[in-house]
Amino acid sequence: MSLHTSEVSQKPESVLTEKVVITCALTGVAANKEQCPAIPYTPVEIALEAKRAYDAGASIVHIHAREDDGKPSHRVEVYAAIQKEVKKLCPVLINFSTGAIDVPREERIRHITELKPEIGALNMGSMNYAKYNPAKKKFVFNWVFENSFDTIRFFLDAMNAAGVHPEMECFDTGHIGNIAPFLDLGILKKPLQFSFIMGVLGGIPATARNLANQVEQIPPGSIWEVIGISHIQWTMISAALSLGGNIRVGLEDNFYLSAGVIAKSNAELVEKAARMARDAGREVASLEDTRKFLGLR
Fold first, then answer.
1. 180 HSE (CA, 13 A, CB side)
2. pLDDT tens-digit profile of 80-104?
3. CATH code: domain of residue 222
4. Cα–Cα distance between 217 and 208 in angstroms, integer?
5. Quick one: pLDDT at residue 297?
6. Residue 229 placed within a domain
7. Residue 251 lies in domain
């Protein structure tokens, strides 16, 4: 048998045969209905958006709580109402955020320990977190996002005690390396799940080359997704699909289906992401697939 024939007869390994998990970040904390009318505020609105996203192909929804007037909320009662309303409508996996600026860490984690969602966001490093407007020559906002090693351990210990799976949010390459002490201590357990947030000022720029470098830093067998901020989201999703990763969309990260076209719901963003996955030759992961990948009961 010739070398050419041997190569052709073997089935090639390809990331294009793998299933892709779609997460939808429903609301965030910064955007409002004036910027995008579809942004949900109330527990009922958030739950309806979760159901639409689930029906469109998302198996995980990432949630920040809001008060009914749209202001960010850290109250356990609000998170509890959101969880109740979502579970009424669909079995989608819930990932509650712990991200906040100038909020005590005890308050940032309380809804995780008391409500025990399937997944909790674990931010893996401190950083400058900003948005700059070149036209106005000034910062829209300019914060320091504190996540010291002590804070990370505090959150991780709390998640472990509550039986909540940590989703490690990494805004830069150094954040990936921050897993080392927690692996050595035995308190960070596999399967490891990474989210690479790209395009935030203060973090790693959103390019395909930077994403490939991020992926090379994580331990073999880890699960990862990309989170591209604003219009660059679709470019980063294309890169992630080609690299074998998972993807996140949602009104927290990006309003736009295409240039100048604002999504009417989170579901429209999920539908586009699912089409892109299928066009790349990949199958959208089911809820059962996602539970298996993350090692969830």
1. 6
2. 999 999 999 999 999 999 999 889 9
3. 3.20.20.70
4. 15
5. 78
6. yes
7. 18-294
Question: Phi-psi bin for 57: left (phi > 0), alpha (psi -120 to 50), beta?
Answer: left
Maximal CA-CA distance, the chain = 72
**Is residue 145 domain-resident?**
yes
Tens digits of residue pLDDT in 242-294: 999 999 999 999 999 999 999 999 999 999 999 999 999 999 999 999 999 99
DSSP-derived secondary structure for 212-271: HHHHHHSPTT-EEEEEE-GGGHHHHHHHHHHHT-EEEE-TTT--EEETTEE-SSHHHHHH
Q: Count structural domains, the chain.
A: 1
The DSSP-derived string for 27-85 is --SS--TTT-TT---SHHHHHHHHHHHHHHT-SEEEE-EE-TTS-EE--HHHHHHHHHH
Please give the backbone phi and psi of residue 209, each rounded to the nearest 5 degrees, phi first: -65, -40
Is 3 a domain residue?
no
Cα separation of 177 and 113, whole Å? 26
